[in-house]
Structures are given as C-alpha cells and as structure tokens.
C-alpha cells in the first residue's frame, strides 16, 4: 500500500462548528505532515509529527489542533474557524532517515468555512 | 516563507515539445525536489537532487542543480497533454527533518 488517504474529500462547516480531518498511511512512515494550500498558491507547512510526537508547529492558530494517535493516523481538529481558513488541506508522510526525503501526499480535503 | 521561486510562472507548449522550468532559491540546501500537482489534487514527487549532485535523470525528466547560482532547472522532454499540471520546486535545508519550503509554482499547459 503506497497511498496516503484523506477523509473527507470535501467539508463545509460554519464558524461555530467542530470538525476533524483524517489522514492515514500504511507505508510505515514515521513522519507525517499537515499543509494548507490556498488557490493558486504553494502548500504551506502547518505541523510535523515525528514518531507520533509533534516536532514542528509553524505558529498555527490554536483553532487548528493536530493529533497523531498512532503511527498510521494523523488528525486535524478544527474549531471556530474563520472564512479565510477555507483552503485545500494536504497530508503527507515520509520514511524517517536522512536518506529518505521524498514526501508522499494525500489528495487533500477541500475545506469551506461559511 | 517561500524560498523557491520558479520561472516562468506559466508555460504553454505544443505536445511533443520540451518544457524547461527554472527555480531559484536563497539559502543553502540539503536537497531540492520537484513536485507535480494536477488541479486541486495532492502533490506527486517527481525527482530529488542532492546538494552534491549536478544533474539527475528519471525517464523524460532531467533536473540540474547549480548551488553556486542557487538555481535548478527541470526539463520535461517530449511533453504530453497529460503533463499539464502545476509544478513546484521545494527546498529542504537540513535533510533530517525534511521540512520543505515550496516555490510559487509554474502552470504548464501542453496543447494536444
């Protein structure tokens, strides 16, 4: 299995809702990433998990809360989002080790905040 | 913050022609990677070149790296309509954490 899967594909939520994005991989990768991508812009790194521990938080607002419950799963919990948070949210994973630099991306969740 | 800057921003070519995309960056790097993204989808890794390498090939792809000029180029030979996508260069400063910084991207259109 060489895929990163993300659910849901699309999500529409109000500013008072709580929702979660899910990412899963079964490649044995121990680094997992969340990116945010606005239309016609490059992906921007949000969070990095290494060995299920948060290693990088790129000063992301607390209304985004990541969670890595095990080595295959990565969640992004959303609460009290703003319309400007509407974007494509991409998950990626990578095998840890200095020789392994390629990241494998999921298809993304298209989030719309009303 | 964005490190890679690709040019041109948009490129339109005829099927069968070669497409050359350039990327410049500002700081020292461990490696530079190129990714492709079809409209609204996830990114697909194309090729990686390390800072001690000058050129790499993979199928119809050729990437070069000039660390003295802090620049890289991606050549796609004999382009196909299916190559139509956005292409991003991404720099990785340390290798160990593989924290990628993406350039703004190039939109490639290949006309059948």
What's the Cα radius of gyration of chain A?
13 Å
Global structural class of chain A: mainly beta
Share of residues in strands of chain B: over 45%
What percentage of residues of chain A falls in helices of 4 or more residues? under 10%
Describe the structure.
Chain A is mostly beta strands and 114 residues long. Helices cover 0% and strands 56% of the residues of chain A. In chain A, the strands form 2 sheets. In chain A, strands 2, 4, 5, 6, 9, 10 and 11 form a 7-stranded mixed beta sheet that branches. In chain A, strands 1-3-8-7 form a 4-stranded antiparallel beta sheet, with no helix packed on it. In chain A, a hairpin with a 2-residue loop joins strand 5 (44-50) and strand 6 (53-57). The model of chain A has no long low-confidence stretch (mean pLDDT 94). Helices cover 0% and strands 55% of the residues of chain B. In chain B, strands 2, 4, 5, 9, 10 and 11 form a 6-stranded mixed beta sheet that branches. A 5-stranded antiparallel beta sheet of chain B has the order 1-3-8-7-6, with no helix packed on it. Chain B is globular, with a radius of gyration of 13 Å. In chain B, 35% of the residues are buried. The mean pLDDT of chain B is 91.
What key phrases describe this protein's structure?
heterodimer; A: 114 residues; mainly beta; four-stranded antiparallel beta sheet; 11 strands; 0% helix; globular; B: 112 residues; six-stranded mixed beta sheet; five-stranded antiparallel beta sheet; 55% strand
